[in-house]
Amino acid sequence: MGFYSVHLFILQFQQPPGHEYSVMVLIIIAAGGVGCIAGGYISQKAGSSRVAFFALLISGLCSLCSFAFFHLPFVIFIPAVILWGITVAADSPQFSTLVAKTAIPEYKGTALTIVTCIGFAITIVSIQFITRLENWLKIDSLFVLLAPGPLIGLLFLFRLVKERK
Fold it and tell me: How far apart are CA 149 and CA 146, in angstroms?
C-alpha cells in the first residue's frame, strides 16, 4: 500500500497529536515486513504458490473493501489497514522464490532481476495512478481501483496452485 496510501487513509480520520500518527504509519508499513517473514515460514509447509495466492486474494479483497474502511470506527479501521499492509507485501518474496525454483539455472539471475523490476514498476505506476486520481475521486473510492492488480495475479497463479496440489 505504501506510505502515501497509509497517509491518505489515516488523514481521513482526526489526526492524532504528535508522534502517535507517525507510530501508526510505522506499524502499518512494518506490517508488510511481518507479512513477508510469516509468508516465508508458512510457505515451507504450504508452498510459495499458495502463500502468494492467498496474500493476493486477501490484499485484493482489502482493496475492494477499502471504500468501506473509511466508514469504520477507528479501532476497526486500523486493524483492517494493518491486515492490508501484511498481505500487500507478502506475495513479492513468494514470486521471487517461485522464479528461483522454476527458472533455467543459467538464466536464474536474469529472471529474478526481471521479476523484481516488474514488481517495482507496478508499484511505481500504481502510486502515480492513485496520486493523479486523488483530485477527481473521493478517497473512499480511490483504492478500489487497485483491485485489478491482485485479480490479474490470481488468474495467473490459479493454475500453478492447482498443479501443485
Answer: 6
The phi-psi region of residue 58 (left if phi > 0; otherwise alpha if psi is between -120 and 50; otherwise beta) is alpha
Q: What is the dihedral sign for C-alpha 122, 130, 22, 29?
A: negative
* The C-alpha cell that represents 9 in the structure block: 487513509
Please choose, from the candidates 59, 46, 73, the residue with its C-alpha nearest in 3D space to the C-alpha of residue 164: 46
Q: Residue 15: in which H helix or E strand, if any? A: none
Cell of 93: 518474496
Q: Mention the CATH class of domain 2-163.
A: mainly alpha
Q: What pLDDT digit, counting tens, does each position of 126-148 carry?
A: 889 888 888 888 877 888 999 99
Q: What is the pTM of this model?
A: 0.84
Report d(CA 33, CA 88) in Å as an integer: 10
111 near 17, Cβ under 8 Å? no
CA atoms of 97 and 152, how far apart (whole Å)? 19
Spell out the domain ranges in the chain: 2-163
Q: How many helices (H) and strands (E) does the chain have?
A: 7, 0
- Are the C-beta atoms of residues 51 and 83 closer than 8 Å to each other? no
